[in-house]
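Input structure tokens:
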């Protein structure tokens, strides 16, 4: 990569690689993260998210590759020289210190005078609505308040980069939704370039300007949440985003049609013949009448009323297929169900899992 393309990114990772013995945790990762961007690194457990974040923070040394922050090559710099702040999954607050001491710690190690330190901690704590808890220890406040204290500690010395490693995973579902909105709002307000690691696709979609989806140490796709959702480039990405994720039905492409178990769907564009996967999001299917042209036959597996929608699961050949019906009524279903798909909404992947169109 030349210096010109480096300037496009505020955080630039170039061929970043980390081996732990025989384990390749991060494998030739290239990324350009813009200044002020909220960037999510999304992927399943063990795919290398935390290692990537620790490499950016300087807590690990790469096996190969370079890291640039703000145009500066920081690969050989120690963490403190990088001007980044990291919020860990377990918050890593010091249990024997009060919240005041915890939040003020980054200022203390930088030699900020006590009076100034206390004033700055108060200011940040007010902002995060934990100012009346500063005399308490972490064990004397709730999980949500500990999480805010950890964020306050990251904010206190005005870093150039925020690194978040699954910061919401210790919160219950309701607090997590609140904390999501709060962090997104805060990041916009302070405008600090943020890399946010999560294995929760909904969290990544909801919070980030752009997402990188990672599998086995490699980046599979980068884009805006909706671009990645609407046009996944591989079956792995397709199956990782969405709740429930995209349905993938194995079959064959033949004479301009997709041939699946008990159905044929004509395709608008011609594709080479061969084994393939038909991908359909659960919200792009609807129930059809028995034997309707192009309908997919299945056996009813489960019906789950979720409130604003009903989730119907059907067995189609060897796979189960999910359908989201946006109705408050429970559908009357027999054993046999027929599913209709809008042909303009289907995704096709070749036998190797790569997107065909
Ligand atoms: N210090 C280490 N020594 C040896 N192997 C490690 C070390 N740290 C991570 N690994 C391995 O590297 C791979 C990536 O780990 P990493 O912690 O980055 O994954 P992750 O995406 O953060 O997963 P999770 O979602 O479970 O936190 C895993 O196979 C892990 O076992
Ligand atoms: Mg991790």
């Amino acid at each position: 990569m030349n210096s010109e393309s480096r300037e496009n990114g505020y955080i630039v990772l170039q061929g970043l690689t980390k081996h732990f013995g025989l384990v390749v945790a991060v494998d030739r990762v290239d990324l350009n993260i813009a200044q002020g961007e909220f960037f999510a690194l999304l992927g399943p457990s063990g795919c290398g998210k935390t290692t990537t974040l620790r490499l950016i923070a300087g807590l690990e040394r790469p096996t190969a590759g370079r890291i640039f922050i703000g145009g500066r090559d920081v690969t050989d710099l120690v963490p403190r020289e990088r001007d980044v702040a990291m919020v860990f999954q377990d918050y890593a607050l010091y249990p024997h210190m009060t919240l005041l001491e915890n939040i003020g710690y980054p200022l203390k190690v930088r030699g900020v005078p006590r009076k100034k330190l206390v004033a700055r901690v108060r200011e940040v704590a007010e902002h995060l609505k934990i100012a009346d808890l500063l005399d308490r220890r972490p064990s004397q406040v709730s999980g949500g308040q500990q999480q805010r204290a950890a964020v306050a500690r990251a904010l206190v010395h005005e870093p150039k980069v925020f690194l978040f490693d699954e910061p919401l995973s210790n919160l219950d579902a309701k607090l997590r939704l609140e904390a999501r909105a709060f962090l997104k709002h805060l990041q916009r307000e302070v405008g600090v370039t943020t890399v946010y690691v999560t294995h929760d696709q909904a969290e990544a979609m909801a919070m980030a300007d752009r997402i990188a989806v990672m599998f086995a140490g490699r980046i599979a796709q980068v884009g805006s949440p909706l671009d990645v959702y609407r046009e996944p480039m591989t079956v792995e990405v397709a199956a990782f985003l969405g709740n429930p994720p995209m349905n993938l039905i194995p079959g064959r492409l033949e004479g301009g049609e997709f041939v699946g178990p008990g159905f044929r769907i004509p395709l608008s564009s011609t594709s080479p013949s061969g084994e393939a996967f038909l991908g359909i999001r659960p919200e792009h299917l609807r129930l059809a009448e028995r034997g309707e042209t192009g309908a997919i036959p299945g056996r009813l597996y489960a019906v789950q009323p979720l409130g604003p929608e009903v989730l119907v699961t059907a067995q189609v050949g060897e796979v189960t297929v999910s359908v989201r019906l946006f109705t408050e009524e429970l559908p009357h279903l027999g054993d046999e169900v027929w599913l209709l798909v809008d042909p303009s909404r289907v995704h096709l992947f070749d036998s190797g899992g790569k997107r065909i169109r």
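The chain has two domains: 3-239, 248-350. The radius of gyration is 24 Å.
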